[in-house]
Write a structure and sequence with these properties.
This protein has one helix and six strands. By secondary structure, it is α+β, with helices and mostly antiparallel strands. The mean pLDDT is 82.
Length: 175
Amino acid sequence: MKKLILTNTLRLLLIGLPLISVSVSAKDEMTEMGDPKMQAQGGDAPKDARDPHAYAAGTTLTEGPYALSSDKRLTLADEHSFYALLGDRLEYNEQTNAGVFDFQAWYGTTFDRLVIKTEGDFSEGNLEENQTDFLWGHAISAYWDTQVGIRLDYNNEGENRKWLAFGLQGLAPYW
């Protein structure tokens, strides 16, 4: 008897739940809210618009009549220092006793950071070739950083070189 009741209850739930979800989703549909008379603001600001920095009267996060001491002041996320170690490639072949590596590390804030990039290959415990970049990265937009610094190239059998390095690193969203 209990088994029959349980079986019938499960059947009702399996049939009833899809019907309930269909009726709920139908109520959630929304009519259009377009109004052709309303235009989004575009172009330059009006001539009488105030300068957003003018009414601050020189007050900053650390100076001004309402500035708090550093131990009481709210520290925002872009004021913290962060770090990361990113490994793109690390390979080792036991038969040839050789391998390759490609790492990147950085330390700094959201807008300015020290970036170290290194890649190379080694054989029988010796470094064969290596490229190491010491860069200062500065954010120029939400997704892009400029990087400037030096690059050191090491070649076990050739000439070692030093370069001035400049680059652009980022992510192209929706690309």
